[in-house]
């Protein structure tokens, strides 16, 4: 069987690597002209995602580009600690979670897939796709007129997926979650020692929600979520990095915590990212085509699970294709839908908890303190991240 994968992000690259490990042929079409190794946002990969990396044989490669973490510390605007929530239970090797550039994760998966024999085509944007609904062979049409085909077409083309719309023209569009995301890194800051090692420090602030994570090399990774209407193309073009940083530092200066200083002294790597989620997609697959990752279930970043879900999808899908061929597609949907939709819903709840008004803030802080103290939050995180795929999934082909 040959897979034709549209998209070489986390979901597409993991699908390709999984396919090669069980002896399936795979072509990956990625519209970017080069493998992106350092751009964009930082993510924290929870233990359920690390477990899939382990099965794919790339956990050590991930450890080489990631920083270990174990806790989320929740703080009120005035600096009071509202609670501590674990990021999950450790894997056998001791890792709980790894914080890394998302592009570093997809790059290591791409590298391993190519080394294992995947056919990666860069600069190959699928202008349209034929999903094989009428019994035809699935194919993608590229800008140069070429038309690669496969036995199954895998849409791993992200939240704005073209494959999703080809499968179902009435498929839902992503929903703006009401927050714009900014992120960056600050070097040579004493916050790298003042912050607790291995912990994300989340401040539920007056005008924004911020996070800071100390790396062990003296840098601190941070982000700022600002509740506001979406950034328009005109606003983006007219706003310099320095102006965004001034604005963010100003927002964060209303709170006790590291964000204002980190933003003022740091490098902005992600500016004005309008954050979307995608809750329920009615059509996950056709007779010979299927969706994985953000193309079929994008949680808000607050869930901390989007990349881990994409990795789980890839492993489950490839194992079913290997054993059952195209007849495995309904089982893929049946096995995944409930879990991922629950995680998207939880992500939406967390996002809306970030930004109440002044009265709501006092209530919210008390509520968060109660949830953390009672262990409810920890149980929810541990429940999600303790998920492990079947032990025999993706056993290498002999
Ligand atoms: C700010 C932010 C913070 C996040 N934090 C976390 C976190 O802490 N933990 C976590 O697990 N997840 C997190 N996520 C979510 C995670 O990054 C995504 O869920 C994950 O990257 C989805 O991977 P994907 O491969 O499905 O989609 P994408 O990463 O969007 O990849 C899609 C790929 O398809 C390519 N493509 C698109 N269209 C075409 C086409 N027509 N032809 C060819 N190629 C195409 C694109 O170039 C891209 O490479 C975060 C997301 C954001 C935005």
Automatic annotation (TrEMBL):
Key words, A-Z? Monooxygenase, Oxidoreductase
**Tagged with keyword Oxidoreductase:** yes
Show where the FAD-binding domain sits: 4-345
Example GO molecular function term?
Answer: monooxygenase activity
InterPro entries per the record? Answer: FAD-bd, FAD-dep_Monooxygenase_BioMet, FAD/NAD-bd_sf
In terms of Pfam families, this protein maps to: FAD_binding_3 (PF01494)
Q: Which PANTHER family match?
A: MONOOXYGENASE, PUTATIVE (AFU_ORTHOLOGUE AFUA_6G14510)-RELATED
Q: Specify the protein name.
A: FAD-dependent monooxygenase
């Amino acid at each position: 069987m040959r897979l034709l994968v549209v998209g070489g992000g986390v979901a597409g690259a993991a699908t390709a690597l999984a396919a090669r490990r069980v002896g399936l042929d795979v072509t990956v079409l990625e519209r970017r002209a080069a493998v992106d190794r350092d751009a964009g946002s930082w993510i924290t990969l929870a233990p359920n995602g690390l477990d899939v990396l382990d099965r794919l044989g790339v956990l050590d490669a991930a450890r080489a580009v990631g920083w270990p973490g174990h806790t989320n510390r929740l703080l009120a605007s005035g600096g009071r600690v509202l609670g501590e929530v674990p990021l999950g239970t450790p894997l056998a090797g001791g890792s709980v979670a790894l914080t890394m550039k998302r592009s570093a994760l997809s790059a290591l998966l791409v590298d391993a897939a190519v080394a294992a024999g995947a056919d990666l085509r860069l600069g190959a944007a699928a202008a349209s796709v034929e999903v094989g609904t009428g019994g035809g062979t699935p194919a993608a049409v590229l800008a140069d007129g070429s038309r690669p085909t496969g036995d199954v077409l895998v849409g791993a083309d992200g939240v704005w997926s073209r494959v999703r719309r080809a499968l179902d023209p009435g498929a839902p569009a992503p929903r703006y979650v009401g927050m714009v995301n900014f992120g960056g890194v600050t070097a040579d800051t004493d916050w790298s020692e003042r912050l607790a090692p291995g912990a994300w420090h989340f401040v539920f602030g007056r005008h924004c929600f911020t996070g800071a994570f100390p790396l062990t090399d003296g840098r601190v990774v941070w982000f700022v979520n600002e509740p506001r209407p979406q950034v328009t193309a005109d606003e983006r073009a007219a706003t310099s990095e320095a102006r965004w940083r001034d604005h963010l530092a100003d927002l964060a200066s209303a709170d006790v915590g590291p964000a204002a200083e980190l933003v003022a002294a740091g490098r902005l790597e992600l500016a004005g990212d309008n954050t979307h989620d995608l809750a329920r997609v009615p059509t996950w697959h056709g007779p010979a085509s299927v969706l994985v990752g953000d193309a079929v279930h994008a949680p808000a970043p607050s869930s901390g699970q989007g990349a881990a879900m994409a990795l789980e999808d890839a492993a489950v899908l490839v194992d079913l294709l290997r054993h059952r061929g195209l007849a495995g597609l309904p089982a893929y949907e049946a096995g995944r839908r409930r879990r991922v939709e629950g995680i998207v819903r939880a992500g939406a709840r967390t996002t809306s908890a970030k930004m109440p008004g002044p009265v709501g803030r006092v209530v919210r802080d008390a509520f968060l303190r109660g949830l953390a103290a009672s262990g409810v939050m920890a149980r929810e995180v541990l429940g999600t991240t303790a998920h492990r795929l079947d032990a025999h999934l993706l056993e290498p082909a002999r």
